[in-house]
Specification:
The protein is an alpha/beta fold. It has a single domain, classed as SGNH hydrolase (Rossmann fold), CATH 3.40.50.1110. The protein is 44% helix and 16% strand. The chain has nine helices and nine strands. The strands form three sheets. Strands 2-1-5-6-7 form a five-stranded parallel beta sheet, sandwiched between helices. β8 and β9 form a beta hairpin. The protein is globular and about 50 Å long.
Length: 219
């Protein structure tokens, strides 16, 4: 079993961290804050150290400083505060008098909007690749209002494709955690309408461990 995991991302990492610790992994890093705060540049690299630049992150900075030098695999949720992106695109569509994004813009324009909105996240994954890090990532828990569902799926499909180009490995929880178009009840955090439960996090931890075991067996 992997003994250590470097976890980084938004509030979706909370459930993953809880599950990882329950599974006996040593977790370093953790959530950096709400996803909206991470849509703009939030770090710099100084002398090989990863330095957070967000206000009010002083206590967190030592936890994340070893990110680039650490030999532990990285698991990230960065970029997948997808309910927010879906809502923003839907709001734009509403200004044009239509509800379906496909009627409001071309596929090319939609893709440009997604990539522009997530340029900080994409730069982050490229930076990890440039430093030779072993990276895994996952998508959101898919908890979104029905009228935003198609936008969320389309946007995440583009983002997943681009992150995979950096060499990061996608951990796709959806085949197990979805009940039709919705997150199955046992994987939903009962305290809110956005996050996954610790069982959702466990699904991702299991996928991570399976990927690591497969890689070790083939090496």
């Amino acid at each position: 079993m992997t003994e250590e995991l470097f976890l980084i991302g938004d509030s979706h990492t909370v459930a993953i961290g809880q599950a990882a610790r329950r599974a006996g992994l040593r977790v370093i890093g953790g959530p950096l804050g709400a996803g909206a705060r991470l849509e703009s540049p939030f770090y710099r690299v100084e002398g090989g150290s990863f330095e957070l630049t967000l206000p009010d992150t002083g206590p967190l900075r030592p936890l994340f400083r070893p990110l680039l030098a650490s030999r532990s695999p990285v698991l990230s949720t960065l970029g997948f505060n997808s309910h927010r992106l879906a809502g923003e695109i839907q709001a734009y569509c509403s200004t044009t008098g239509v509800q379906d994004w496909g009627q409001a813009m071309s596929r090319q324009v939609f893709e440009h909007m997604v990539l522009e909105a997530r340029r900080t996240a994409l730069a982050f994954y490229r930076m990890l690749a440039d430093h030779g890090r072993e990276v895994y990532f996952t998508c959101s828990p898919q908890r979104v209002a029905p009228h935003l569902r198609d936008i969320l799926v389309a946007g995440e499909t583009i983002l997943i494709r681009e992150i995979c180009k950096t060499g990061a490995v996608f951990l796709d929880h959806r085949p197990q955690t979805m009940d039709g178009p919705c997150l199955a009840a046992q994987y939903a955090n009962e305290a809110d309408t956005m996050h996954g439960s610790i069982e959702w996090g466990q699904t991702i931890v299991d996928l991570f461990l399976a990927q690591r075991a497969c890689a070790a067996a083939s090496s």
